[in-house]
Amino acid sequence: MIENLTNLLVYGAISGAVYALLALGFTLIYGVADVVNMAHGAFYMLGAYAFSVFLIHLGYNSITNPSPFLLFIALILAPIFVGFVGTIVYRSLIHPLIEDALSVLVVTIGTALILQQIILFIFGDKDMPVPKLLEGSITPLGVTVTYHELLSFVLSLSLIAVLWIFIARSKIGGAMRAAAQDREAATLMGINTERLYMLTMAISALLAAIAGILLVPPAASPILREWTYPLVMSFAIVILGGLGSIKGSLVGAFVIGYVEKFVLIFFPGMGFLKGAAALIVMVLVLLFRPKGVFGKRVEAE
Amino acid sequence: MPLLEVENLTKRFGGLTAVNNVSFHVDEGDIVGLIGPNGAGKTTLFNLITGFLEPDSGTVRFKSEDITGLGPHKIVNKGIARTFQVVRPFRHLPAIANVIVACVSPRASKKLEWLKSPERKALDMLELVGLSEMMFESAGNLAHGDLKRLEMARALATEPDLLLLDEPFSGLNPIETDYLTKSIQRLHLDGYTMVIVEHKLHELMKLVRRVIVLHYGEKIAEGSPKEISLNKKVIEVYMGKGAT
Amino acid sequence: MVGTFLKRVYSSFATKVLDVPPRLLAFLFFLLLLFIPMAKPDSYTLLILTIAYIYALFAASWDLLVGRSGQVSLGHALFFGVAAYLSAFLSKFHGFPIWATIPLSMLFCALVAVLIGVPCLRVKGPYLTLVTLAFPLILFVIIFSLPSPVGGEGGIALPPRFFPREFFMERGFSLSEAVYLQTLAEYYLILVSLFVSSIILYRVANSKTGIVLVSILDDESASKACGINVTKYKLLAFAVSALFAGLAGGLYAHSFGAQGAVAPEAVLGLTTSFYPVIMTIFGGIGTIYGPIVGAFTLWTLMEFFRVAAELRALIYISIIIIFIVKWPTGVAKFVVEKLNDLAKEREIDERKKKK
Predict the structure, then answer these.
(1) Which end of chain C is more exposed for a tag (fewer CB within 10 A), N or C?
(2) Is the pTM value of this prediction over 0.90?
(3) Cβ(A16)–Cβ(A257) under 8 Å?
């Protein structure tokens, strides 16, 4: 029992950190551009695939050439690639419809489906193994933690910190905050919203991609073609924490991370329940606090 | 028994007290003006009375019934109708459909004459405000003055006993202003009780019998139009300290 | 006098196509569909069309909710799935006749809509969208974890079909003829259901209730200021929409579902929730005819693309997306608006001639 609890404590935290990265991406593009991006899970998936592909082309091989240097390079290249894809998607599909929230929603659904089909088309039924960033593990205090998981944890928190500072201090970050508060006012103040949103989308997709690269290896690879699970998790977190709120996404991510690990640890064999558990938590939160814990004001009376 | 009794109504938004301990009453058949500089809390007061906001303390009694904090649609169905400072038409609907919405409300349905349909009633309302020619025009295409009249038609369609008008004269040209003044006088003669918020004091003072003045959320004066226009505090508030 | 007046009130709300009222066009369209079987198409074609009708009904029910009251639900599969499942369950395991289980399931869906509507509709905008999405997925997992034959990945296998083969064979038809007639009978049954349902949905959408729903979509606060109990109307829209989505689900269970299984993935999945959304946006939201056109077009188009196997889904979805970006109001709505403009121009020309 104690072992389960300590496992939960540690694994929940690690999950939470990476989920925070994923959720931040989702909440960012909503907060700044009012876009509910149904393709967010697809970017997650794309990130993992792109990582694999880059590695192969760089000559990486888990048995003959497991170079950490190459892993590092791919870790940089893949998210940038996905961020670029996100920008293109935004510019070509979302921006023309930005005034109509429903159409944007539908178009992002379509994007997710397209990306899924493209991946299916290119890779077919082959399973693409996504290597871990580091091999090996340590076992402090009876909890087995892989180096990959440790690195994920540290990397995620660092990225979140960098992002936080960026949004709070930099000029672009200020523009984002302005657009999040009032899109029209931001345009009137000379902010080129189109470019700002493209950049935000790039960051959002980039974050999703990194989350994919970090989370896919420890799990089994069939999840690779699944873009719905990360999407659903993003929703649950973001609703819980409040759409548009960075603090909320952080808090929500850890809550959901712990819920997920709780199900996995205490209900072994019923792993498919974890998604439902997260959703149930989300629904319950919404019933009692319709705007989430730190929600952004969605409407003014 | 006064129709409307507002007692010690207070509303705070964070650190700002928008309405501070305001009390007043309105008798049946009264026509009362509510004035004050911008930000004095007039619209907030309306929102509190009509249920769009919940007060932090105080009560609102209508026909001796405590209606404090009831939802806006319930209050409309008790007999208080309001218009908005910035018009809020249903832009996706034609003018007549705008009024039909109000005619379908429980109160309007109950008070509907035996053989009349809500559509017929809506048409009557439009004719009353002079908009019947525009009835199939989409509300999104109407001019500002027409939209103001549409708001009035909608409010009247709910068969109110008390009518709260929020800046009805704003944005109207002289012809429309004249028409509105005559309409309000006619409504008053028909027995409607009204509270009117307005900045165009010249027009307002012609219509009302009593004036309440708000400043920074507090009631600073109450009296006849003549008394108010001579009240030192009121003049100070509008013109600045040097004017007296 | 009141009658003609009423007609004019609502005609400004609906649309006119040239000089032909849209109702006539819709009727002609359905007439055409009724006569398609005369061309002796094979079972497969009939089945495709039948499923198109089911999704058309599903999409139209979604349109009533979203196009009229503006509450965007991304979880409409909940009602489709609940009805399909309940009807299959009651008829297969408890022997209830289909003509009873389907209405029962429909009513149950309306009840479910009210139950989840009360908490859900307190929530606005994107929050509502995302929370509605959760419900079918949660139910999916619950059913998934139930033991078969009731649940599990396979769902309920082989629920009874509308017209069992014996029905035809008793009347002297051979086995192969009976199999064809099964599909043909379902074709007509479902087509007629679609026709009747779409009329009802259209009437509701263009009634006083429909007007109130649009007022809620437009400006909820102003609607309240007119004395409207907004929550009550939202729940009403939700319930009526669920009723017809349930009908679609029930029809599915005993036609297509009966040829394999009513599986959770097919009736409660995320993609099932997406279908009505895409079809309605493609065709034109808020029209009732838009989603029907969208469903026909997209579903039959998908079959057309079956030829190109691998790339088909990709091209198919890309085409849909391009259409939506180019004609955001919806293809059917766009066509109707253009025709209206033409009609108005003709009217103006005629008036000029008279002068």
Answers:
(1) C
(2) no
(3) yes
